[in-house]
Amino acid sequence: MNVTQRQRELTNLLDKAAKVYEQGQDEIMSNFEYDKLYDELKALEEKSGTVLANSPTARPGYEVLSELPKFKHETPCLSLDKTKSRAALSEWLNGHDGVLSWKMDGLTVVLTYENGELVRAVTRGNGEIGEVITNNAKVFKNVPVKIAFKGTLVIRGEAVIKYSDFEKINDAISDPAEKYKNPRNLCSGSVRQLNNEITAKRNVHLFAFTLFSASGDENFNTDFKTINEGFDFLERLGFTVVEHKTVNSTNVENAVQYFADKIESNDFPSDGLVLCFDNIAYGESLGRTSKFPRNAIAFKWADETALTHIREVEWSASRTGLINPVAIFDPVELEGTTVSRASLHNVSVTEELKIGIGDEVSVYKANMIIPQIAENLTKSGKLVIPAACPVCGGRTEIKDNDGNRFLYCMNPVCTAKKLGSFVQFVSRDAMNIEGISESTLEKFIALGYIHDYADIYRLSAHRDEIVTLDGFGEKSYNNLQAAIEKSKDIELPNFIFALGIPNIGLANARLICRELGGTLDSVLNADREKLLSINQIGDVIADSVVNFMADEKNRAEIAALNEYVRIAEPEAVDEASLSLKGLTFVITGSVEHYANRNELKAFIEKKGGSVASAVSKNTNYLINNDVMSNSSKNKKAKELGVEIISEEAFIERFGN
How far is CA 653 from CA 132, 584, 599, in A? Predict the structure, then answer.
């Protein structure tokens, strides 16, 4: 399966998930799993330059610019240590009673009441500092604004939008492109609105999960000994508390199964469970680490595995010439669906796993959705790396990039490269020309309308022919010309990315443009030494830029484009805002605070940092919420002495 085929597969799967979700049918994946596949699709779109018409990446979630005041929490809101083992929960309790509850997937909010009235509501933020959302919390559907307790009360809870309300909100939106992608993102935007009339319409609910403190009212006994007593107290005051069960070492695993059986019928989003010691004094006596409190632990659902045999390895070529391996194996049932293929990523992975045709392998769905090979039990190592490109038959070559080996097609006129380069040129992150699909480009190339990039801006010369083509007409042609005209105003990084320079993604384009001064001439005339002086730019990238710009054909093409495009003047950069300048990060696994990895990546780049795809000696931090995992990236980081930090640790150090 090639990249475009995988994009179609992911797009169709995500589209199906969105439809059953909006229609109130049983979900086929969780929000967490949806974001994981969404990230994979987004990465493939960046690599191929193709964004399919029904791609969910074209449906933006709710966005809001926050100008809410900040507030420092009196006690940090720490994250929890995690496990996927049910048996580990029993061991963790070690004979003590515990309280098991949902780990809800929304936005954590801290509420403070004084003299019976809600006086402050603050988001969790980075754990140290949150945003004040008091006016918005007052219009949550189930939050009491006045309570009988007249002292000072502080609770923590999770703000969520129920699936049923999410569906109603999306059903009221006629344009599919404007529909929200999941309840968590919609809730985050709703809770942080500047106008609480909007919040009120979103039906936000709050589920209390911690009674943090209660004092100052002699009419109430608040000397609670257990978590359960605190929950009962909050319910009497009118709060909705998270569903919970009292457990011990002998029955906690059965309780986990009780919650697991309820997932599909739940009307609220959750991404696991939380177990805490029921005895408050005992839990507090355990203290905390620098990252986690010791009185509670989070439980994540474990991955289901199955044994199968590899029947073939399919190699797919992209516009860059990169040829990726995909394992095809005997179909197996995992997480309720049949799977028969898994990406092997690159040559290095096939070598590390010692892949061979016929090998017995253990496969699983990462985060219950993305097929991966966990282990090769046979380890024959007999896989033959193709000497010819599967698309054009041209010669292939293995190249080393940051310690990883990749297979490339060396034919400069490979069909996959030619069409792919135009697809990237018109893509959203490049020139963003709406209305030119891959099939349209293929047709225009075949008819001789397009030979180079600038020809796209000369399509008016073929107007009479285009309006007679199948699928076209006067209206379609006019829409296309409007999109082409709109694309002429462009930011320099997007223009550089559009050129299709080998090894230059949008992130590297932004980094190079920013460091070189933000003008086209500065990039055109940058020498190797200047490029190498930029943090995270190594020999491969520097040589790619220099060699590309030294080619007279490429310079002529840029000059031709310059007759049509208007590259925006560089904005003045506030150096004080570039707090991550000089730091390089690698992000792996799922994220919880940010909507997805792309949002975290965008934050890092906005602050002047760089995000690489692979761990190398130039990496400063590997961000992985499963800090103790034995993943390949974690192993590489440990070998190189690169610090592995969780998302929460990143936020604590660098903000959010």
Answer: 21, 14, 17
The residues facing 316 across adjacent strands are 324
Domains, the chain, ordered by start:
1-53 (1.10.287), 70-299 (3.30.470.30), 303-411 (2.40.50.140), 415-567 (1.10.150.20), 575-654 (3.40.50.10190)
Distance CA 441, CA 443 (A): 5
How many residues are listed for the chain in this entry? 656
Backbone angles phi, psi at 123, to 5 degrees: -70, 160
Phi, psi of 224 (to 5 degrees): -75, 135
Instruction: Label residue 637 exposed, middle or buried (CB < 10 Å: 0-12, 13-18, 19+).
Output: buried
* Helix extents (H) in 56-108: 86-93
304/32 Cα distance (integer angstroms): 16
Please tell me the distance from the alpha carbon of residue 108 to that of residue 125, in angstroms, as a whole number: 8
Query: pLDDT, tens digit, for every residue of 139-172?
Result: 898 888 888 899 999 999 999 998 888 877 776 6
Q: Which is it for the CA torsion 454, 457, 462, 466, positive or negative?
A: positive
pLDDT at 402 over 80: no
HEC letters along 500-537: CCCCCCHHHHHHHHHHHCCCHHHHHCCCHHHHHCCCCC
pLDDT at position 465, please? Answer: 84
The amino acid present at 190, given as its one-letter code, is: S
Side-chain-side CA neighbours of residue 588 (13 Å)? 23
- Residue 495 φ then ψ, to 5°: -65, -45
What percent of the chain has a predicted confidence (pLDDT) above 90? 36
Is 103 catalytic? The answer is yes
* pLDDT at position 156: 95
Alpha-carbon radius of gyration of the chain: 27
Give the predicted TM-score (pTM) of the model.
Answer: 0.43
- In this structure, what are the phi and psi dihedrals at residue 376, rounded to the nearest 5 degrees? -105, 110
SS3 of residue 146 by DSSP: strand
Q: Which of 377, 375, 315 is nearest to 346 (CA)?
A: 315
* DSSP-derived pairing of the beta strands 107-114 and 117-123: antiparallel
At 531, which amino acid appears?
Answer: L
What are the C-alpha distances in Å from 529 to residues 303, 478, 503, 534? 47, 46, 18, 9
Helix intervals (H) in 489-620: 492-498, 506-516, 520-524, 528-532, 539-550, 552-562, 597-606
Q: Which residues contact 166 (CB under 8 A, 6 or more apart)?
A: 180, 182, 183, 186
Alpha helix ranges (H) inside 263-324: 280-285
Strand partners, 101: 244, 274
| Residues facing 276 on adjacent strands | 99, 296
Strand, helix or coil at 471? coil
β pairing state of 270-277 and 396-401: unpaired
Whole-angstrom distance, CA of residue 68 vs CA of residue 654: 19
8 Å CB contact between 35 and 369: no
Residue among 36, 47, 103, 179 flagged as catalytic: 103
- Closest alpha carbon to 328 in 374, 361, 365, 351: 361
